[in-house]
Amino acid sequence: MDIEVKIDPACPAAKLILVTPELTEEQEQLLRRLSGETPRVLTGLRDGTVTVLDPAEVVRVYAGGGKVFAVTGDGEYTLRLRLYEAEARLDPTQFVRISHSEFINLRKVRQFDLNLAGTISVTFTDGAISYVSRWYVTKVKRILGI
Question: Are strands 129-132 and 120-124 parallel, antiparallel or unpaired?
């Protein structure tokens, strides 16, 4: 990566410009550090202990009974966030909303079953099943390229 510094006394404030053919993960991390953005972590509560959840291990996040839950291979955790706040902390290229009350990790999906009329059945790698609501079917199909 080339770095160029230009000192201009007429410049009222510092300005950083990144010129790149595509934004890489390394560049995104650098930009977050420079902007002072705090790392976004997802923490879950279970049995009185708070656990930092690895986003790659989260299978799905859903709301039910006035609470928000994250499901991982280790079990289910209660989140102290609203559903949209949890969704904002996770990678939008990896997680997709499938209903008003649930979003899923695409990397934890085994298959999508399109045989149901008006909806899609989602089978996860752990064998659990969920359903895409009719409102989100078009969006999910677009993401899947079908």
Answer: antiparallel
Q: Give the pTM.
A: 0.71
pLDDT tens sequence across 74-87: 999 999 999 999 99
Region of 136 on the Ramachandran plot (φ > 0 left; ψ -120 to 50 alpha; else beta):
alpha
Tokens 């390229």 belong to 145
Closest CA to 86 of 110, 53, 109, 108: 53
Superfamily of domain 42-144: LytTr DNA-binding domain (2.40.50.1020)
Give 76's strand partners. Answer: 71
* Sign of the CA dihedral with 5 first, then 8, 12, and 18 last: negative
